[in-house]
Automatic annotation (TrEMBL):
Substrate binds at residues 91, 221, 306. This is 5-methylthioadenosine/S-adenosylhomocysteine deaminase. SUPFAM superfamilies: Composite domain of metallo-dependent hydrolases, Metallo-dependent hydrolases. It is an enzyme of class 3 (hydrolase). It catalyses: S-methyl-5'-thioadenosine + H2O + H(+) = S-methyl-5'-thioinosine + NH4(+); S-adenosyl-L-homocysteine + H2O + H(+) = S-inosyl-L-homocysteine + NH4(+). Its cofactor is Zn(2+). Belongs to the metallo-dependent hydrolases superfamily. MTA/SAH deaminase family. Catalyzes the deamination of 5-methylthioadenosine and S-adenosyl-L-homocysteine into 5-methylthioinosine and S-inosyl-L-homocysteine, respectively. Is also able to deaminate adenosine. One of its GO terms (molecular function) is metal ion binding. InterPro entries: Amidohydro-rel (IPR006680), Deaminase_MtaD/DadD (IPR023512), Metal-dep_hydrolase_composite (IPR011059), Metal_Hydrolase (IPR032466), MTA/SAH_deaminase (IPR050287). The keyword Metal-binding applies. Residues 53-411 form the Amidohydrolase-related domain. It comes from Cohnella luojiensis. Keywords: Hydrolase, Metal-binding, Zinc.
Length: 427
């Protein structure tokens, strides 16, 4: 058994009471085994936190690692034109190496900015290579190949037959679900209704039940997308997903901006989960999601940067601030307070992934997915009694992340990502 001890930290537990403690935490193998003042533990590795802030690692519930290399190619288009003119041709041009390096580069950026779990969506081909990069990086991840067996203007290279899309997904699932000590999971990723036949979606429904895995898709991101779904299927997005039996607790919807009351009711009543992507929603001019209302309804809402072309740096600190700002400017200063936003970035993400017993907070028995922040750089006042939640949400940046552990392993220390060699990625 390997034991690690982190000493003298200011621990933002993100437990049910959002308690902040001063003290030590012990990690036995990959699990938090003790929390307290002056723990008397024989440890193989001791990290002296010296008053640094220990937080649960961030959980990003919507990422496209395969798009990391596409940054800066499509900065002023709306969703459908952006996909047709830029993203789909670029995804069609991907090969094994470019998928691998795109993923590795994205994973390095995510770890550097304190993210320890992602829900990822790949492209049609070469997803095997993204999984290899995930495995090497040490990231906790749910990922899957994107599924696209339908739709206009999809490049030939991305067009799939229904059977083959389902079969390839199951092949990847059987190879990767539960890999790396359970750190890697498979998730079915039908891209969005616009790119999927009903037959494919029904196949995904049945297979996700059979294998007990998540379904990750985009829904109601953009008004043109909604119009396409209504024209073809005669229903709003979420109503259609419910109609074919996909609206269940294992369904995770990215964006979900333009939900009407019926759709919100379906999401709430069926236990469907939502991912908010504020940077992407603003950059693609998609709209403002109804996050405060969804939270009031008891719906689990996580946060994700989306692909790198949408948020540009995959940085949860930026996404947290945008989550707060975009609501405050519309609904006033108290509508999304810092505690709520930090919960969305940690426990909220865990709830979206159905992993609230395993990750999202610093509590004995939970997996050791942690980030240590050095906040001394930018505030002269050595006062952790000032509102630490506000400091983390409004003032911290990824440059303040010093050390990151995932599954009890140190994946970054002294601001160096140990598991991802940047020189190799950029060769
Ligand atoms: N909807 C369907 N595909 C995509 C994608 O790649 N990115 C975003 N933001 N929305 C999508
Ligand atoms: Fe997306």
């Amino acid at each position: 058994m390997a034991t690690k001890l982190i000493r003298n930290a200011v621990i933002m537990t993100m437990n049910a009471g959002n308690e902040v403690l001063k003290g030590d935490i012990a990690i036995t193998d990959n699990v938090i085994s003790a929390i307290g003042a002056n723990l008397d533990v024989q440890a193989d590795v001791v990290i002296d936190a010296g008053g640094k802030v220990l937080l649960p690692g961030f959980i990003q519930t919507h990422i496209h690692l395969c798009q990391t290399l596409f940054r800066g190619r499509a900065d002023d288009l709306a969703l459908i034109d952006w996909l047709r003119q830029k993203i789909w041709p670029l995804e069609a041009a991907h090969d094994e190496d470019s998928v691998y390096y795109s993923a590795l580069l994205g994973l390095g950026e995510l770890i550097r900015s304190g993210t320890t779990t992602i829900l990822d969506m790949e492209t049609v081909h070469h997803t095997e290579y993204a999984f290899r990069a995930i495995e090497e990086s040490g990231m906790r991840a749910l990922s899957g190949k994107v599924m696209m067996d339908h739709g206009t203007e999809v490049p030939l290279a991305l067009q799939e037959e229904t059977d083959s899309s389902l079969r390839q997904s199951v092949d990847l699932l059987e190879r990767w679900h539960g890999a790396a000590n359970g750190r890697i999971q498979y998730a079915f990723c039908p891209r969005f209704v616009v790119s999927c036949t009903e037959e494919l979606l029904i196949g995904v429904r049945d297979l996700s039940e059979q294998y007990k895995v998540k379904v990750h898709t985009h829904a109601s991101e953009n008004l043109d997308e909604i119009a396409l779904v209504e024209a073809e299927r005669g229903m709003r997005n979420v109503v259609y997903l419910d109609h074919i039996g996909l609206a269940k607790p294992n369904l995770i919807l990215a964006h979900s901006i333009w939900l009407n009351d019926e759709e919100k009711g379906i999401i709430r009543d069926r236990g469907v989960k939502v991912t908010h992507c504020p940077g992407s929603n603003m950059k693609l001019a998609s709209g403002v999601a109804q996050v405060p209302e969804l939270l009031r309804e008891g719906i689990a809402v996580g946060i994700g940067a989306d692909g790198a072309p949408c948020n540009n740096n995959l940085d949860m600190f930026q996404e947290m601030r945008l989550t707060a700002f975009i609501q405050k400017i519309q609904h006033g200063p108290t509508v999304m307070d810092a505690r709520t936003v930090l919960r969305m970035a940690t426990m909220g993400g865990a709830e979206v992934l159905g992993m609230e017993k395993e990750i999202g907070s610093i509590e004995v028995g939970k997996l050791a997915d942690l980030q240590l922040l050095d906040l001394e750089d930018f505030h002269a006042y050595p006062s952790y009694d000032a509102d630490l939640f506000s400091r983390v949400v409004y003032a911290a940046t990824r440059g303040d992340v010093d050390t990151v552990l995932i599954d009890g392993e140190i994946v970054m220390q002294g601001k160096i990502v140990r598991t991802v060699d940047r020189k190799r990625v950029l060769k």
